[in-house]
Write a structure and sequence with these properties.
This protein is mainly alpha-helical. The chain contains 17 helices and eight strands.
Length: 449
């Protein structure tokens, strides 16, 4: 059984919540964010030659590096925990009679406020770099590097918006829902690899990550964990499918990298879903043992403290890479060794230490600066029949803008993408003015589930 406690804790955006917390879910979120941070750091190799900074993907130069992506790919954990948290939150809010539009906007704005701050700072930095004549190639690559991880947000915002519908489907059909989604994901891959219909592949962002989100629902209602053999069955089925796909299909073992003709992440593949099932099953099977450890209040307080900073760490963890690259590489203070050499691996330890030394005060500064955001309302204006449409339009604009930033970066072609930033600001504003529950107009329900 999960260890639950009625405590004022925080969600991914660092906002307090009052419903019961699953200690293990919070620990998984914290562990996953550290894997993401140090995984990105170990795979990013900065070079400086002939007056130009550049970045290389270490996976391209370490022969066995593709296998390293297996322990480093932890995004399935984020979606698993996200599904659990969204099920807890929507169930509690629905019991109080709260509308879909109010709940979705509240969840979305808690993610969007810190994201807007990050995007604003990164865009201003890109504008300053343009003004000072930073070469367009270097600026474009740096802008892409610090925007790539934003891909998570549009996918997660979509799953938040669909939570009431998908949770209702889980309650009616149970684990059949993610099973059908898995079959559909395999069909999408067949269409991409066979008739070469690449656009349809984007459906797997919902089908693959949505399946992991559904497992979070099944964790919440116990259908995946009521018997100890169920998580092991999920892990075993995922491992068997993964082994078969890696042996007899074109999908590579690399669960993180991109740039190849066939990848597991852009868009997600059925191989990544099999890996996600293996990972989810294993972490759920470990819950009873870890929960005994989390009963110790001292460790639980540390997890709670770190959990309140997860969103900020996720958004800002690549900023130290840019800062340290500019500060240490052109000056020659940071040695450059051949990627994959013994010297390079030793330098990775120093690289980690320096980046951590920059990230810790940076996160503290950002969280201090973001304190006024907690005073901002999650909605403005009066709820009315127009509220769901405004919210949907706003979220669509936000998701498109964040996707564009994740693909092209903050300085595509060496210039600031102002139309994308305007779309992001407009979408956020539309979501914000979709109404305040305290000022509801007549005849408003705003619910779709």
């Amino acid at each position: 059984m999960a260890v639950l406690q009625q405590v004022p804790s925080a969600d991914m955006a660092g906002q307090p919540v009052s419903h019961a917390r699953n200690r293990y879910a919070d620990l998984l979120r914290v562990a996953a964010i550290f894997a993401v941070v140090y995984g990105h750091w170990v795979l990013t190799d900065v070079t400086y030659s002939r007056g130009r900074l550049s970045g290389l993907d270490a996976l391209e130069y370490v022969s066995w590096g593709r296998w390293l992506t297996l322990p480093l790919q932890v995004m399935p954990v984020f979606f698993l925990v996200g599904g659990y948290a969204n099920a807890v939150s929507w169930t509690a809010h629905r019991a109080r009679g709260e509308a879909w539009v109010t709940w979705v906007r509240g969840r979305a704005m808690r993610l969007l406020w810190p994201t807007i701050v990050y995007v604003a700072v990164a865009s201003i930095a890109a504008g300053v770099a343009v003004a000072y004549g930073v070469p367009s190639g270097e600026l474009a690559q740096a802008g892409w590097l610090i925007a790539l991880h934003l891909w998570f947000l549009p996918v997660y915002l979509l799953l938040i918006a669909l939570t009431p519908v998908m949770l209702a489907a889980q309650r009616r059909w149970g684990l059949t829902v993610p099973a059908v989604m898995a079959v559909a994901a395999a069909g999408v891959d067949a269409a991409v690899l066979g008739p070469h219909l690449p656009v349809i592949g984007f459906a797997n962002y919902f089908l693959v990550w949505g399946s992991a989100h559904q497992w979070g629902f099944a964790w919440h209602d116990g259908s995946l964990t009521r018997d100890r053999w169920r998580p092991w069955l999920l892990a075993g089925a995922g491992l068997a499918l993964l082994a078969g796909l890696l042996a007899w299909s074109p999908f590579p073992v690399d669960m993180i990298g991109a740039g190849e003709r066939i990848t597991n992440t852009g868009p997600p593949s059925i191989a990544l879903l099999a890996f996600a099932a293996t990972q989810a099953g294993l972490v759920l099977a470990a819950a009873p043992a870890v929960n005994r450890f989390l009963e110790r209040e001292r460790w639980w307080r540390r997890v709670t403290w770190l959990n309140s900073k997860v969103m900020t760490i996720y958004l800002w963890h690549m900023a130290p890479v840019a800062i340290v690259a500019v500060a240490l590489y052109p000056t020659g203070l940071m040695p450059q060794a051949p990627i994959g050499s013994a010297h390079w691996w030793v330098l990775r330890l120093a690289w980690f230490a320096i980046l951590t030394g920059v990230l810790v005060p940076l996160v503290a500064l950002v969280m201090w600066a973001e304190q006024p955001l907690r005073l901002l309302p999650s909605g403005l204006g009066r709820l009315g029949p127009w509220s769901p449409a405004l919210l949907v339009l706003g979220l669509v604009a936000v998701m498109i803008a964040l996707t564009k930033l994740a693909i092209s970066g903050f300085a595509p072609g060496g210039s600031v993408p102002w139309p994308v930033l305007v779309a992001l600001a407009t979408g956020t504003l539309l979501a914000l003015v979709s109404g305040n529950a305290a000022r509801a107009g007549p005849g408003v329900t705003g619910s779709i589930g």
